[in-house]
């Protein structure tokens, strides 16, 4: 992931020249040195002790690209050194530790935000724009299918709740962004299908209740071979006036009711407008740019930890529901 972040920082027009890297930290300094060489980062501090490197370099920002279990201590260390912190998803390994991060950032007077980069893909932004326009009427349901046969190797294949915790956070955050309202409850069934190469929780089906009588249906699997969906999933957004379909790539299909008679009412096609502000549709670069803009302006970034914890709460409520086999309320 550090490669993706450094690519965005050094190559993307939104970010070029805005950040100077002064140090890289890894448990294995040789890995950090190799990354520094790959991006021609000279005259920087390389080390395995984050506290020591922060003390030596005194940076304004800390970019957190560690595994989830290491995140709470890393964020706390960064904030203690008066750094603004941008952290990979998921925000934290537990809801309690996420809440602690929010309080620590508030106490330090620093910005802590989360890289929910898929919120910034063009399709997700365009859907939100269409919903806000009222063209679909009042949204009644958001439906999403995510089926990918992903062979990562490494830590993911040993994780518990791997789909919900490591991947579904993207989709759940996107649904919350589309709905523009808060989740209130969930019922979830989590499984590890026969033939799964994951240790636990490679598939899940969840029904979320949102405010404003919106239902969000999630179906997903990371061990589904033969017909991969997009990494952004495929979507059906149903409103009182019409329906939008998105394949997760570039294909949109939307219709709304145009007649008042007949068993099936007459329909008319509905255009899904392009985003007027392309700076909000550049994935990692948009997240980082929003983070930098917020620091400079004193505002909160769109993916601030204090907001992103609501998406994380959806994940942990789904995990709890699957464990208890019952509906679980969501309150953050």
UniProtKB/TrEMBL annotation:
A single MF term (Gene Ontology): nucleotide binding
- GFO/IDH/MocA-like oxidoreductase domain location is 124-244
- SUPFAM superfamilies (UniProt xref): Glyceraldehyde-3-phosphate dehydrogenase-like, C-terminal domain (SSF55347), NAD(P)-binding Rossmann-fold domains (SSF51735)
Tell me the domain of life: Bacteria
InterPro entries associated with the record = Gfo/Idh/MocA-like_OxRdtase_N (IPR000683), Gfo/Idh/MocA_oxidoreduct (IPR051317), GFO_IDH_MocA-like_dom (IPR055170), NAD(P)-bd_dom_sf (IPR036291)
Which residues are in the Gfo/Idh/MocA-like oxidoreductase N-terminal domain? 18-113
Pfam annotation, one family: GFO_IDH_MocA_C3
- PANTHER family in the record, alphabetically? CONSERVED EXPRESSED OXIDOREDUCTASE (EUROFUNG) (PTHR43708), OXIDOREDUCTASE (PTHR43708:SF8)
What's the name of the protein? Oxidoreductase
Which organism's genome codes for this protein?
A: Devosia riboflavina
